[in-house]
What does this fold into?
Amino acid sequence: MISFVEILEYTGTFAFAISGIRYASLQKFDWFGAYVVGLVTAIGGGTLRDLLLNSSPFWMTEPSYLICTAIALLFAILFGEKINHLSNTFMIFDTLGLGFFVVVGIEKTLDAGFPMWTAVVMGAATGAFGGVIRDVLLNQEPLIFRKEIYAMACVIGGIAYWLGIEFQLNAAIIQVLSATTVILTRLLAVRYHIGLPVLKGYNEGNNNSDETFHSK
Amino acid sequence: MISFVEILEYTGTFAFAISGIRYASLQKFDWFGAYVVGLVTAIGGGTLRDLLLNSSPFWMTEPSYLICTAIALLFAILFGEKINHLSNTFMIFDTLGLGFFVVVGIEKTLDAGFPMWTAVVMGAATGAFGGVIRDVLLNQEPLIFRKEIYAMACVIGGIAYWLGIEFQLNAAIIQVLSATTVILTRLLAVRYHIGLPVLKGYNEGNNNSDETFHSK
Amino acid sequence: MISFVEILEYTGTFAFAISGIRYASLQKFDWFGAYVVGLVTAIGGGTLRDLLLNSSPFWMTEPSYLICTAIALLFAILFGEKINHLSNTFMIFDTLGLGFFVVVGIEKTLDAGFPMWTAVVMGAATGAFGGVIRDVLLNQEPLIFRKEIYAMACVIGGIAYWLGIEFQLNAAIIQVLSATTVILTRLLAVRYHIGLPVLKGYNEGNNNSDETFHSK
It folds into this structure.
């Protein structure tokens, strides 16, 4: 039987893959290219985490991630433009997956013997790095550096996990608390267009100093 | 004495490096930049494979790959524009190298104890990932996601390897069969401009839904 | 007490982080995005080195690099545009850090049992790769491939290290010699606008051959 945890994992993988596939289709990638971008979006964060933890990437012994991405591609081919009407649904799934992946990233890092602050970084990397590689492959500026709180929500969820440990809460409660914090932070940020301040001070229109700067 | 396998390996490395160097020169990179792009194109796929397999990257104990790339750079500096007349020749070498690298990638993965489907993925990654990093470094959209079948040829060659094992063919025959499948698929795709379908359905000119989508 | 080596390390980390943060601010990244780009610029080279050496990335057990980047971000937020007047100061710090990081990269690689030529490559990768990832994340063509000698200075410093070993110099002298070579090469290159030749021969305005070439 499939467990609740597995449902979360596959839903999240599917939503991440769909996100990659949709962006790829906007740039007229072929089916194979769309599949690769979808796969990299779905497994990129966890692969970076496993490489940094010096363990074997999770998807190399378990075919479900490749299959999940294949189903996402099939879905995109069959339903095409109609998927756009489901944007909000996918956003919800994507956010559920994000909360789940952050908790997985934190726990794998703690299990490997690293300190809590490393686990917070790795939780955020697990959740957000797939989207960064997706944007790099699409030759776009990574969205997460400019849009509503996304990676920051992962960090806040990681801090919630940390507090849960400090207050000696039950392990299952810490997991739910951390994932819920990620999800609510993300949903509130999207709903109310909450973003971080833009770093200011280096103006354009000042070609001279710009030039000096770029000559680094 | 140099073996037939080594000839294939050096020819392929040289052709991959030339491909990176030529693209770099189109963007007016300096000699060092061209060397780095050539090297990354030649060793990038195998390096990713070795990192994922948790083994030491192949080029770190064997200087021939760096030397091969240096010869390719010298060649490009000396012959410059005349190289363009050799485009077809390089394409043949590149394709021979591709077939060879796919087989190496598959076998290293099987040797490390992973299942056959993982080996197919890793064979394709070994063959095609160098070109992806090349395009990322050149700040271009990766070609393999839009052009004639390239990475797909690696996957088809991997499936040929798989079938060879299922039918219990001789090891050497499986290698030749798999590499030949990659090479023929690639050459036929280029000759007859065979490509995969483009993923459709997300039209431009629909800024509103686009906006919604990008707000992810 | 903080040692001289640690001062070099933190100064270099700070300068590398500032470089990433300044570029990020030019592209209007938010605070979090600027922090990530700064961090990746500072730790990217060493992380690649540690992954290739199959050892645990240095920043995962020692929080000072994340803290250093946070201070750099705070500095950029507080002083904003005024930082531009300090361009030359940062360039000096950045170059000091570069010399230091190259030596660290070389020694870690030799300690792991690799040959000297691998150490030269890894020293250059440690010094220069952070800037490459920075430019990839900013969706820019990597500067080091076109501007004044930067990565090449790392290679020259590595060769100085090699010569020091060949002449059986004292270990501390080799370190200073190598770092000084990197620093002087870099400063002279910037001062006198010394660059490597651009690779020529593949002209634009020749769309036909271009097309053939790109069809690879």
Remarks:
- Chain C has a mean pLDDT of 87.
- Chain C touches chain B through 37 residues (CB under 8 Å).
- Chain C is about 70% helix and 0% strand.
- The radius of gyration of chain C is 18 Å.
